[in-house]
Write a structure and sequence with these properties.
five-stranded mixed sheet; two-stranded antiparallel sheet; 4 helices; about 25% strand; alpha+beta
């Protein structure tokens, strides 16, 4: 079996909070960053942007890049070694011209019909890094110390 390659984005507001998504039909305390499988021939960062839009309705083409610093973190293997996630960080450096509270964060994609056809995500919230440690998958938790270092570097 070949390895599944996934890509995702940690969206970090200037206040240090991270956007997390709740996958539909998962335990109430299980959350994730927006992420998903990289399609054949798709550049990894493009997949992360696409998956973020599909799962959150956030279109980074509509958000001024001057407000952000984008970083690629080291890829992380899932425990079973059959899946690798390539994480990115979108770190808000200045107060965004977009109001996060007014953004229409919602799921734009459904699981395949043969698996139910329901939206992939059913809830969203902004959490601190400490809160994220308790609700994200261990592969995503491994990235949080790198994000803390970026926050320190940019003095946020």
């Amino acid at each position: 079996m070949s390895k599944v390659i996934a890509a995702g984005i940690f969206i970090v507001k200037k206040d240090g909070n991270i956007l997390v998504c709740h996958p539909t039909n998962h335990a109430a305390n299980f959350w994730s960053i927006p992420k998903g499988k990289v399609e054949d021939g798709e550049p990894i960062y493009d997949a992360a942007i696409r998956e973020t839009y599909e799962e959150t309705n956030i279109n980074f083409n509509d958000i001024s890049r001057e407000n952000y610093s984008v970083h690629r973190l080291e890829p992380v293997n899932y425990g079973h070694k059959k899946k690798m996630i390539y994480p990115f960080v979108h770190l808000e450096l200045t107060n965004s011209t977009s109001s996060w509270e007014e953004m229409d964060i919602k799921c734009n994609s459904n699981v395949p019909v043969e698996r139910g056809g329901f939206p992939e995500m059913d809830d969203y919230k902004w959490v601190s890094i400490d809160e994220a440690r308790g609700i994200l998958h261990e592969t995503q938790v491994k990235c949080l110390s790198m994000i803390e270092e970026l926050i320190k570097k940019y003095k946020l």
